[in-house]
Amino acid sequence: MTIRIDGRELKVEGRPTVLDVARANGIFVPSLCDHPALEPYAACRLCLVEVKGRRGYVPACSAIVEDGMDVLTATPEIRALRRGILELILAEHPHACLICAEKASCDDYKSTIRKTGEVTGCVLCPVNGRCELQRVVDAVGLEIVPFPSHRRPGEVRRDDPFIDRDNSLCILCGRCVRVCSEVRGANVLTFVSRGSETVIGTALDRRLLDSGCQFCGACVDACPTGSLSERARRYERPADKESATICPLCGQGCRLLVASRDGRVLGAAPDPAGPANSGQACVRGRFLVKPALTHPRRLLEPLIRENGVLRKAGWDEALDLAATRLAAFGPGQVAVTASGQSSCEDIFALHKFGTEVLRAPALTGSWTRSAAAGLRELGRAAGRPVALNFRMADIALAKTIIVVGEDLRITQPIVGLHVRKAVANGASLITIDPGKGRRKLLSCPDAAKPIFVLFEPGLLEGKQGFVRLAELWNLAAAGGGRLIALDRESNARGGLAIAEAFPGRSVKKRPRALYLAGPCPKLEPGDADLVIVQGSYGDENTVLADIVLPEATSFESEGTFVNVEGRIQVSSPAVEPAGGSRPGWRIIKDLAARLGAPGSGFESAAQVRTALAAAVPALAAAASADALEGTVFMVEEIAGPAGVIDLAAVEGLARRRARVAMPDTDDYKGSSLASENKSLRLIRGR
To answer: Measured between alpha carbons, how far is 626 from 329 in angstroms, rounded to an integer?
Structure first.
């Protein structure tokens, strides 16, 4: 269809709003209540436009375009109307700086500390320079507010984890209330009172913590002013750099925008264009990036044991000693572990190092006991290839969803949003706790199809784990749906794909030496002749190590991650590695070179990724994943028909599963974020 805006003829497809079309074509129409993730609301009335042939003025944010529509956005009457509306908004908002004649030179000549209890102007506001109200006032050209100033009641609320609430900065746009309800389904925030006393609050004026809030931060991200702000960034200067990274703190593969200044991380927020998360995050990705990087147990320098005590050492000394000690062990005498939270590059380098240099048994990692590995084993036992790839958005199309053993709000919050969409569209939701005794599900219940069954690794524990999984498989197949494995680590799927390309050999003898680059059960003195730890945080095994090699976190190094969907994504570093820490692949490369290994001369993560794509067919797309923005890259796999599985064929699978340490939901590479961060501990109730 064709419409006209301010005399410009524009071609339009679909059913966008007038505001959408105007923005897409560079035509400025102010708005403060509109948000791309929310349904049109038309509360602030700043986007009023004139549509020829219609009486009065129309909110551009809620007016769906029609063929032949002729719109005017900036007539003298509309400009005057917007100024009047904006004056009324500012009458209840600290506006001294917004209309100050000297504000253009303020940043150049005035240095102001923001640690004040009351915001009276922009220079004291936590979002100065990032405030949408500032931009609208500048665009409209407001110079005076002719009404008496009225401050909204209430002090700044600082009694919740992570978030401060300041109603004096609120403009009642309702975006926080709507995102909490429409997108997150939490319904924690609401409008309280009436008239000039209206504020945003909670039922019975309780804390967010006592109102069911999961602290996803969506309300903070939706707020156009500083009314809702992240406490850790409230008094920080604006960032000078923003980097897109893949969050390594769970398995969903959310893309974050990590803000930093002078090489120091200030915080993180979800990327609105993130393919897996679409601008949403959870408490870990939203608020715990900085604490993870500045953790007091970060390993920042190599350590070597001398006279029974670990002491600091240089990299050359530590690597030389590690190579000398490892060279003394024969084939099968060194065991190597990796982490499902490491990048594909790091895991691939470890596999090559273990099999080709150390001649070690098959490398172990938490993916060996993952839900995805269990589903793959089930398919092999039944004689059919099983597809692991899926799209989170497809879950929203299900008519019946069965969730086994997961609290999606905590473990898979983005998946949970798609489940919520399905339920809002009329789907039935069934939850099963496998720990409450075995429940037999052999037939499709009286519910609509398709049936999606979401399960976590705990389902496979015990002698009947695979039988339960086969029953759920049969149920999903009968219901025209599918079984979906939900693993909690950021790269369990990547680790599994690489492990299948490096099957290695199993050795039943107890290893004499351990190279730990991933989770391992607690060691006791004398468990091994040599213990080398490659990690980011000190833990109970680090204190028993002979050599400690500090590894950079995923926020400090480039790497490829495969999320629960099977989506391949390349993450860029947000800051330089802290202290003397190094990327995992580089540590392995330097150590392998000292052991005389050929082909260890990788000079960048991109070179490792190229070799990875050539050696692991399932991850062939990784070679292109960082070059073609907007293209979806998935793990390559072959799927078979979803027929019924004979339960007798899977009876003995549980007994053959390798046992490895499985990290807690809130662990990151040995750092327990829930137990060591006071705010997250409060949220989790620990």
So the answer is: 39
